[in-house]
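Project channel, design review

CF: Before we commit to the Cytospora paraplurivora constructs, I'd like one complete example in the thread so the newer folks can see what an input/output pair looks like. Taking Maltose/galactoside acetyltransferase domain-containing protein.
RD: sounds good, go ahead.
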Amino acid sequence: MRAPNIVTAPNVDPEENLDRMRKGELYYAFVPDLIAERKRCALACSEFNKATDVSRRDQLEMLNEVLQNDEPLPRRHFGMSEEGDDAQLADLPIVEVPVKMDYGYNVKLGKGVYVNSNSTWIDTCEISVGERTLIGPNCSFYSGTHPLDPTIRNGTRGPESGKPITIGEDCWLGGNSIILPGVTIGKGSTVGAGSVVTKDVPPYHCVAGNPARIIRKIEVPGADDSGGEEVGGDEAEAEASGAGAGAGDNKGEGIQVLAGEDAPTV
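CF: and here is what came back for Maltose/galactoside acetyltransferase domain-containing protein:
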């Protein structure tokens, strides 16, 4: 029996292929260097996920290995207690285990970011999360995509592509949210639990559902809520006033939508 061909893509220049991936252009994922990068990240994630009883500093060092972040941590001075060291690391991201990433180096987490357990990051292109953003459990970020034409898609032998995901500062993503390629979520916005975000979310808005629709605007004195394509349009604005926002609505059946000021659950 002939051995299966593991490397399924044609011969490509590795640097050019990686550059095309990061730019969101068509590239080949099943080439030796990218397979090796995904294996490296999988091993780093595995070590990070197993280290549940380590110091905050050790956890951050392992997270930096996943992210390939070479920025040094604040130095722990001689005689400093672990509590004192934790205090100087307090503004750095907190990522609960387990976590799954494809490459790691395309994920950028700002200061004060909190990521709850079981997050998935398909970081074909950059996925950036702004400072002080809170992410609930089981959230997924899919920056990778494929050609719609199956003759071009061609399984593992064909090319794929991606689009960056940008999440602004001070956002709140409820549990089980899914963010799709090319989406920008504006500063200060909230995504209801179980939502699938397919389009940009303007700053200081609440969205929920599958696909996510605007539920309401968040009134923050002095906040700039300009920019971003509004999700849903006029029909979504009707939902924001109360119509069609129930759990049995056929636009979001089975989805927990915003109810009051405290949803979504993180």
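RD: helpful, thanks. The two ends are 51 Å apart (CA to CA).
CF: DSSP finds six helices and 18 strands in the chain.
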